[in-house]
Amino acid sequence: EVKIEVVIPEKERNKEEMSPNGKASPLIYKVNGTARHYHLEEHPIASNPYHNPKDMVEASVCHVKDLENGQMREVDLGCGKALLIKESGEFHAVGHKCPHYGAPLVKGVLSKGRVRCPWHGACFNIGTGDIEDFPGLDSLPRFQVKIEKEKVYIRASKQALQTQRRTKMMAKCISLSNYNLSSTNVLIIGAGAAGLVCAETLRQEGFSDRIVMCTMDRHLPYDRPKLSKSMDSHPEQIALRPKEFFCTYDIEVLTEMQVAAVDVKSKIAVFKDGFKMEYNKLLIATGNMPKTLSCKGREIENVFNIRTPEDANRVVKLATSKNVVIVGASFLGMEVAAYLAERAHSVSVVELEHVPFKKFFGERVGRAVMKMFENNRVKFYMQTEVSELREQEGKLKEVVLKSGKILRADVCVVGVGAVPATGFLKQSGINIDSKGFIVVNKMMQTNIPGVFAAGDAVTFPLALRNNKKVNVPHWQMAHMHGRIAALNMLAHGTEISTVPYLWTAMFGKSIRYAGHGEGFDDVVIQGDLDELKFVAFYTKSDEVVAVASINYDPIVSKVAEVLAAGRTIRKRDVDTVIFLSFRTGDMSWLTGKGS
Questions:
Q1: Beta 451-453 vs 276-284: how paired, if at all?
Q2: Could you give the strand order of the β-sheet that contains 109-111, starting from the edge strand earlier in sequence?
Q3: pLDDT at residue 32, as a whole number
Q4: Is 436 exposed, middle or buried (0-12, 13-18, 19+ CB in 10 A)?
Q5: Where is each Rieske domain found (predicted)?
Q6: CB-based contacts of 10: which residues, under 8 Å, 6+ apart?
Q7: Which CATH architecture best describes the domain 508-590?
Q8: Is the separation of the CB atoms in 357 and 350 below 8 Å?
């Protein structure tokens, strides 16, 4: 056994930690005399790839016969835990928590060399720890495994055991000082999940040219789903990456910058303030914009669309011990209702349908969710809409419904859907459908060479539904769109083939959902709706197209793996094959394709 210890001199280590410019100073350019700052900080993240031998720990964790093929076990190394996996006769060890929200991966699904998170569906390669499906940005740390005298040993870094996450190695820009500030190789319009994952993937793949992201938001990329799930979170608490990250990897972010037009022939983006930026490759990831009410009084103070952390924070502050009316039983509307139920004096939901989520989860599941809300003091006014908002001294006082009912209201939150934020592209020549969505192919390419689009603003061919063009406004899907777009900017020829996966959380209950159930004609439910412990299979003709569950983990992740493997689940199989594997843990039937 040969042991090598590498010691980097302090002077050389300091060099490694610096930006390619020698100093990570802020970049500034001027437009019409106004200074604009890039988000670059003076203290980049230290990224030393060499482990200190004192940081390493090695422990015997089990006998080789303790695990069968296809089994996982959480093992303790004294200063932290690891996930030990046996597949095809080989042992692997990786981090035991999903880097997204910390789910225990031992309760996830192991299949074909990867483990899928039981909560939100992220997938990790068991050999490398690399993230292969989303949500989340980081990969798992991978630990060394050795077999000696029938015993399994794991050698790991103490730091990795404690953090349970690993950021993949990335390239840096060769020299930002050589660039004209009004031109970039890659321009990303939008700084949500799709835009950030695109930028990170480019760097992970060794791209060392300039990358500029621009956003109308005042903040660096943040965890947008938390705006309605954790409404009092501050921007720095939900940031997807710290400021130092963008400096370290030379990803420039222009905040509060709105693109007004794109000239695809000249490859120029024109900003609202008149500034112009040339690009070589373009990603449009602008997401959507919330719909507003069209009734009288919609401009009254204390009527909100939840779009930013400031919106969410202000709603919580104003709603405490007050009367809240939420218009629309959408995901956002219902999550806001659940969050405010214990804080507000009263919460009322106004909805056109007769049950919440009917089109998405079906009537029976919708009624079960509605009952849960009613048990938590939320009142529903169904099959009606708002006709007028009334004020007193400039502030909201009452919400008048078309049914004639008048609701006392100090705060109103509007959650009646959204439209794609693509209005600035109407004269661009980029193909946009009748609803305003950007049309892309399986490689996230638009009809214009070098122009890609991703996230909530696009329709794309979904392999799961025979390549039907669909819009899937899920957080997980935006991540994958961004990755596929980046790979194809680099001419990898990678096609998207992920299974849609989403979740919502209300009153401590999480609903998980995988697949694409649009147009389902039947729902097969197993479990107890009244007890909120069930799984629902959504079928079209004889085929299962989606699944949802509450308190039935990891069934949704298991079905997602089945669908990802290209297998078809028939309605008649729901009681047998799916539940056999769920109860016994046997995933052997997952291999192969077909029904």
A1: parallel
A2: 109-111, 114-116, 123-125, 131-133
A3: 33
A4: middle
A5: 59-154
A6: none
A7: 2-Layer Sandwich (3.30)
A8: no
Token readout for 180 is 């004209």
What is the pairing mode between strands 131-133 and 123-125? antiparallel
DSSP 572: G
For 492-512, how does the pLDDT look when each residue is reduced to its tens digit (9 = 90+)? 999 999 999 999 999 999 999
Q: What contacts 22, CB < 8 A, 6 or more positions away?
A: none
Comparing C-alpha atoms, which of 513, 558, 485, 471 is closest to residue 123? Answer: 558
Sheet with 395-401, side-by-side order of all strands = 386-392, 395-401, 406-408
Which string of b and e fits 480-491 if b means at least 16 CB within 10 Å?
A: bbbbbbbbbbee
Tokens matching residue 9: 């001199």
Q: CA 238 from chain center: how many Å?
A: 12
Whole-angstrom distance, CA of residue 335 vs CA of residue 349: 11
Write out pLDDT tens, residues 241-284.
Answer: 999 999 999 999 999 999 999 999 999 999 999 999 999 999 99
CATH topology agreement for domains 303-416 and 508-590? no
CA–CA separation, 228 vs 457, rounded Å?
Answer: 20
Amino acid in position 338: A
What is the secondary structure of 235-260 as a DSSP string?
GGGSBSS-HHHHHHTTEEEE-S--EE
> Residues with Cβ < 8 Å from 213, sequence gap 6 or more?
188, 190, 191, 195, 196, 199, 221, 251, 252, 253, 254
Q: At 116, list the tokens.
A: 């899928």
Domain boundaries, the chain: 53-163, 170-291+419-499, 303-416, 508-590
Token representation of residue 195: 């835009």
* Rounded Cα–Cα distance for residues 480 and 498 (Å): 8
Strand, helix or coil at 31? strand
CATH for 53-163, options being 2.60.120.200, 2.60.120.260, 2.102.10.10, 3.90.550.10: 2.102.10.10
50 exposed, middle or buried (CB, 10 Å; 0-12, 13-18, 19+)?
A: exposed
- Answer yes or no: CATH 2.115.10.20 is held by domain 170-291+419-499: no
Quote the pTM value.
0.89
* Record: fold of 303-416: FAD/NAD(P)-binding domain (3.50.50)
* 437 touches 459 (CB < 8 A): yes
How crowded is residue 268: how many other Cβ atoms within 10 Å of its Cβ? 17
| 535 strand-pairing partners | 526, 549
Do 124 and 139 meet the contact criterion of CB atoms below 8 Å apart? yes
Task: Give the count of beta carbons closer than 10 Å to the beta carbon of residue 536.
Answer: 25
CA neighbor of 225 nearest in space, from 444, 422, 510: 510
- CA-based nearest residue to 353, from 377, 331, 385, 326: 385
What digits encode the pLDDT tens for the residues 439-479? Answer: 999 999 999 999 999 999 999 999 999 999 999 999 999 99
Residues 6+ apart with CB under 8 A from 484: 442, 443, 444, 454, 494, 495, 496
Residue 138's CB is within 10 A of a number of other CB atoms, namely 21
Radius of gyration of the chain (CA): 25
